[in-house]
Amino acid sequence: MKNRGLRLSAFETLKIYYTGMFFNNFILGTIAGDSFKVAVLHKRKKAKTGFAATFLDRFAGLAVLSIFAVAGGVIVNAVNFANSKDLHITMFILAFFALILTLVFSLIFSKHLQVIFSKILLKLPFESAKRIESIVSSVYIDRRNKKDTEMLTKIFALSFIIQTIRISAHIFCAAAIGIFALNTLHYYFVIIPITALLMMIPLPFGVIPAIAGAIFSVAGFSLESATIMQFLAAIAGIIGSSAGAVFFLLDRKSAKN
After folding, report:
1. Nearest to 30 by CA among 195, 192, 159
2. Would you place residue 231 in the very low, low, confident or very high pLDDT band (cuts 50, 70, 90)?
3. 65 in Cβ contact with 163 (< 8 Å)
4. Quick one: how many helices (H) and strands (E) in the chain?
5. Residue ranges per domain, the chain?
6. CA 118 from chain center: how many Å?
7. What is the mean pLDDT of residues 19-44?
């Protein structure tokens, strides 16, 4: 936000972030929390800034998780090279996440693609097409701009730490119920990124942990234990972001007064 000309206090930024994170964990996936953050900044007449900040935050997380997934997929292939079924599945995962990385990085950094994409948006038969293009173009990164590259480097460094903690939370939940083994570590780096993508779909609470448990069961985990592990991780996420709920309720109360 600072890079795009919006300066908020550290505490105010923290409130927006944690409230959005609470909505991400509790209400219909990441679309709820992301929409909240954009809406809050829109009230400040900074819709483009809110979109850019939220998108880059989401993009960095997805990019880091994709790197983890590719690395984990390579290890799965190396460990299970004799199992053609596992090989085909993980090769598909590798290709999928590699494609995501390629597309997103290309759009963020390629000036040629940015121009093409902007032209496509401007040709859409909607009155708001120009406004949409203006908002989308706010996330473009100029590689020749030192401030832009420094900003993105810092975002990626922080995102790497955050996503490592995210995967570690699932590992600790597995250890808590006695199903973690060191020789299964690589599966977490493949499966958790998949569940992170699922969180972008507006689904009721409980659906994603159940799906994630089923995916872990394909990797050889007990379905019941894997599902419990995922529900524990989901509950841990809600507890960890509960400060956001408190901030939201206090802000609502002060607004009414």
Report:
1. 195
2. very high
3. yes
4. 11, 0
5. 10-250
6. 24
7. 77
